[in-house]
Amino acid sequence: MSPLGRIRERGDGTTVVDLDGDADLGALPTLHQLLTRAVDRATNVVLVDLDGLTVLDDAALGLVIGAAAAARRRGVELRLVCTEPRRRERLADTRLDQIVPVDDRTTH
């Protein structure tokens, strides 16, 4: 597990990125690496679980958009998992939820 998260594979072919800690400017290189590895390894769906994060800044949201675009180019779907109401509201306010689907659980 890196300081920001880990990648795991589920038996159904889904790649899950479990994030933890602060996804801020200082964590961007690590977040970029995690998302890139997950998209490159995925065969079907990438779920990015935001529930372990304490901070999710705008720059990190930009990386998520880039990862979603890269996933689409590979024929893979990237989805976010977020159960925290204020964070879901922020995703809606930024309209990120119109670009990347947001689920309320990791069982897609």
TrEMBL record:
InterPro entries: STAS_dom, STAS_dom_sf
Gene Ontology MF, one: anti-sigma factor antagonist activity
Annotated STAS domain residues: 12-108
Full protein name: Anti-anti-sigma factor
Gene3D superfamilies the UniProt entry points to: STAS domain (3.30.750.24)
Organism of provenance: Ilumatobacter fluminis
